[in-house]
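In this supplementary section we document a worked example of the pipeline. Step one takes a protein sequence of length 291 as its only input; no multiple sequence alignment statistics are reported here. Step two produces a three-dimensional model, which step three serialises into structure tokens for compact storage. The input and output of this example are shown verbatim.
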Amino acid sequence: MSKVFIVAPHGNTHTDTISEGIKLANQLQKQPEVFAYCYEYFSGPEYYNPRLAAVAQQALMKRREEEVREQLKNIDASGVPLHLVWSKVLYEHVCHYSAQHDFDMIIKWIDNKNHYLPIDWHLIRHTPVPLMLLCDNPLNKANTILMAVDLDTTNPQKQSLNDLVIAQAKMLANATDAQLHLAHVIRVPPILRDMDVLNIHEITASAHQKHAVKLKALGLAPENIHLIAGDPELCLFELSCRLKSRYLVIGVRQRQGLLGHVLGNTAEAILSRMRSNVLVVPTNSMTKTLY
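The serialised model returned by step three reads:
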């Protein structure tokens, strides 16, 4: 059975990641597994004495286990597998373990509702499977899903990523009985749009005609297809707010080498602005089976 990797949150958070993660896993007909992370820097006697450090580590792990098991008990999920992990670098263990043990999705809370923290960006840049980031306090509550694709691309990798985004979004929509919307942004510099140099209506009408075959194949209602001219960051943010989208599904290209820590200005700008739940579909997941 396919599996979902749920990262248990630390401390107080408005998002009940464990409960929401288990619910989503069940909707997707996948097996949820919860991972509780723990790590502390020792000082004093524990720093100099390995035996004392081991005792302190065991005590911290036991406390963490009791805390998470109590949460599982409160939501009648005591039977869900729980893994206790002592790890200094959370994202490295999450990415390595999920890849090695064939997980289909990772679910994690967003540490800060106003912006992503470094740990979130590390996961986005390195995740080998689709990554669901649950918003601390989602502004958008409607049962809609917005998927963002680049219909104009001629790059084979980006075209394959489009297919992955569509497949993941459809799977999520079917599982949650949500209404699916598609967004494609035709890049128009803001200054040109503000100066009325271009006819935006003609640009979007031309895009509809150009991609008519692709759009028809998706099987979406015309009112659920949004071809917009403008800046991708602002357009997707405004559209997701207007639709009150519960989820945004977006693909990211994870580069290697010198650019290995960069997703690209467009993807980072879009993700930085979003305040709803986000399903990040990485290029790395191209080698995994979607269904």
